[in-house]
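forwarding from the other thread:

> can someone predict this with zinc ion?

sure thing
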Amino acid sequence: MTERYPEPEVLRLVSPSSEVLSQEAISIAPSEIDSDEFQALIDGMLDLAQGEQGNPARRTMVGLAAPQLGISKRIIVIGIDADGMGKNPDFKVYVNPQVTRRSSEINIDREGCYSTGRVCGIVERANSVTITAFDRFGNSVTETHDGFVARIFQHEIDHLDGLRFPDRITKTDDLLWVELKDFGDFRDRWQDWPHKCSREKWEAIKRGQA
Ligand SMILES: [Zn+2]
């Protein structure tokens, strides 16, 4: 017998080669949102996101999607006031999020992910998005976000569709390699980062062969 959710205290990030990261996640039934089990999962996701902020050995976490924890459900946590410059954000939960409008104006910036290891990259995203979702209490929300926070929404919603940012990168030179100790540097120098990551290497990481 399998449990529908793991116990919150054992929530942890799956490896970049985990198959769940390439699967389309399942929508949450509104009736499910009130359950103790679901609310405990939400608390666990928030605890994990916030806990990483106090961990000096890790990068700043600005968003999290349930598939990154091996849970193929359409739930994301967003650092709603993240600035992309290392600020520890406040997190908010979105259930069944959908992008209902994206600006034609594009924003080009760097991305990294706890589910891509040391692979980072330069990713084109819409500069502004409108999203609809349920909040953690089952209320419908519609919000518009710009810039870095709009980027986080697009990145996390991609996780729900089994997509990671390297698969959105079309220019070979925009796939990059960043050692953990260099993340601070990367934030300032991403535009001319010298360490590239080959497409083959990324594909090997996905297969668990790197
Ligand atoms: Zn990610």
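Helices lie at 36-53, 147-160, 183-189, 199-207. thats all i got for now
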